[in-house]
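Form 7-S
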Amino acid sequence: TGEELKAADWAKQVCANGVPMGGDLMAATEGQIPSLLVQARKDPDGANLDRIQVVKGWLDANGETYEQVFDVSWSDPDQRIRGADGKVPSVGSSVNEREATYTNAIGAPILTGYWKDPAFDPTQKAFYYVRVMEIPTPTWLAYDRKNYNLHDEMPATAPYTSQERAYTSPIWYNPS
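Output:
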């Protein structure tokens, strides 16, 4: 229900009562809807986190596949409000491309969230996985440009920032 997040040992409760990433959900009984409790922590030496997303994929009756991305948790939720389209605006960037630096002045070190499938169809095969996005950081191309003093030789249109991502294994839902 999401109330588990209020408990000090919520992760232990979820592991005891839930399905781990990479696992299978079998046919849902009436009224059951898949829900996920998620938490991500930044790498101690890395960039802060921008957001946690759930990616849902499903197979319709004609065998066509679809995917939809849902923003579940994000840094600065008071400043970045989900839009009418369900999407959260960009976290921004602290990258200095010329110096190949960034700061953790934006983003969050830990994100936690609860998500319940808003369009669950118990008759459709589906999968769910979580994607965690960091704040933008310099690319290796930016570091090379700075370290080898190649500012005049490198194209201005080259990508000097990127937004790293981490993915979980999916959870599979099979109605049969």
